[in-house]
Amino acid sequence: MVTDQNATILYVNQAFERLTGYAWEDVAGQTPRILHSGKHSKNFYRAMWETLTHGEVYRGRLVNRRKDGTHFTEDISIAPVTDDAGRIVNYVAVAQDVSDRLLLEAELLQAQKMESIGRLAGGVAHDFNNMLGAILGNAELALDSLEPHSALREELTEIVHAAKRSAEITQQLLAFARKQVVTPRRLNLNEAIEGMIKMLRRLVGENVAVEWVPGPEEIVIEIDPSQLHQILANLCVNARDAITDVGVITIHTRIEHLDAKAIRDCRHAGAPGPYALLSVTDTGCGMDAETIMHLFEPFYTTKAVGKGTGLGLATVHGIVMQNGGCIRVSSKPWEGSTFRIYLPLCMKETDMAETDPRPTAAQGQGETVLIAEDEESVLRLTRSMLEKLGYKVLAASSPKEALQLADAFDGHIDLLLSDVIMPGMNGRDLATHMKDKYPDLHCLFMSGYTADVIADHGVLDDGVYFIQKPFTTQQLAHRVKVVLGQARDDMAGG
Question: b/e map of 404-432 (b: 16 or more CB within 10 Å)?
Fold first, then answer.
C-alpha cells in the first residue's frame, strides 16, 4: 500500500485485494481506517503515527478487518518517504498475513497444554484410584455389615457417594486428556439418549425443563456408552448453571451433512459427508466471543469459586475428539447457547442401548481366585470383596508370591485377578507363567493407570479382560462372572 502524507490511499497491489477483499476502486481516496477492526485503542494508533511523523519506520502487528467483516492478523512495516527537502510525501506499507501461522501456533500450544495436563492426570490417576478404591470398597463392605436401621448407614452412604464423585473427577481428567480406558460399541443414538432423559431431568432440577426432540431417522454411532453419558451430563449441567431462574434445555438429534467449509470451520480432520448431530440448546445467559474462545480449556470456568472444576466442557471436548468428532458453539450474551456435536455415523447393525447396572452383585459358586496386587490396602479390600461374594481367595502381594502360592496350591485355580504393573513382573507375564500349570486359567487384569500406559502392556488387546480401578463390589462381581463365562459381556471387545 502507498499513501500520501495525509494517509490517503494512492496504490494497493493484488495481494492486498486478495487478502482484504477490497478492490482498488473500493479503497481509492480512502484512508487505512477502512481496515480498522476495533481491536486497537486510539493510543495505539497515536503512538504509531508519532513514530511515522518523526521520520522513523514503524514495525508491528495489526489485527485488521476484511470487507466481509472477518478479521486477519498481519505483521506490517510502514516507512515514510521524503523529498529532497526532507519532507514526508508518502508512506509505503509492506505487510504479511500471519493469521494461519498464529492459528497453528495456538493449536500447538493447546496440544502442549493438553499433553502436560495428560501427564499430570496419568501421574495422579494411579495412586488416586488406588486410594479411592480402598475408600469406596471398605465403605461398601461396612455398609453391607450394618443393620438396616443403623445410625451409621447415612454417614457411610455419604462416604460412598463422595468416593464415586471423586472417581468421576479423575475420569474427567483422563477424558479430556484422551487417556481414559474406553470400550466403544455401536449404539442407536436416539435409544441411548431416551434411556438417559429421566436421569438428566433429575440432574438439572425442577426449575429447568429438559425437552427431548429425537430425529426421525435411525442414527447409529460407535462410542463408549459411559462417554455419551458424560457428554450429555456435562452439557446439561453447564446449561443449567447458565440459567438463573427457570428455563429450558433442548436436546435434539438428526443426521446432518457437513461440507468442506463446515469441516474447516470445525477445524475437523474428518471428510465431508453425513454426520450424527447431537445438539444441546439452553435459554441461559449466553456467552461473549472471548468466553467461547477459552471454553474448552482445562480448568477454565466463569463460575464462582467452589461452583465448578472447569473440567466439564474440557471433558466433552476430549471425548468428542477421541471419537473422531467435532464441536461447534453458537452463543450471544443473554440469548442462550447451542452446543452442536458432530460424530461419525456407523452404518452397521446396532447393539442394544446401554442399560442400568445390575441392582445386586452376582454371587460366586466357590471358585478359586488368585489375586496379585502390590498395594496392600487394595489387596486386602479385593480379597474381602471376593470372599463376601462367595469365592475362595488366594492373595499375593507380588508376582513372585503369586507363583509360589500357585505352585503350592493342590486345588484348581479358576481365575487370576492381577494388577497390570507390579515390581519385577507385569500382569501379562505373570498370567503366561501361570498358564504353564493351569492352561485353562481365566485372567482379569486391573489397574489405576491411564489407557496409554496399560495399552503398552497389552491389556487392552482384543480378548483380554480388564477392569479399571476404582471399582465397586457390584462391578467386580459382574466382571468376574463375565470372565468365567457365566454372564453376558456388556463391554464389547473384552
Answer: ebbeeeeeebbbbbbbbbbeebbbbebbe
Strands across the sheet containing 88-97: 9-11, 2-4, 88-97, 71-82, 58-65
Q: Which of 478, 382, 471 is nearest to 160 (CA)?
A: 471
Quick check: 163 and 139 in contact, CB under 8 A?
A: yes
Q: Which CATH class is domain 368-483?
A: alpha beta
Dihedrals φ, ψ of 81, to 5°?
-110, 130
pTM: 0.46
Model pLDDT for residues 320-365, shown as the tens digit of each residue: 888 889 899 999 898 899 999 999 998 654 444 444 443 456 687 8
* C-alpha distance from residue 245 to each of 207, 283, 285 (Å): 7, 10, 10
- Strand-pairing partners, residue 448, are none
CATH domain 102-176 topology: Helix Hairpins (1.10.287)
pLDDT at 492: 41
Residue type, 5: Q
47-58: per-residue pLDDT in tens? 999 999 999 999
Residue type for position 203: L
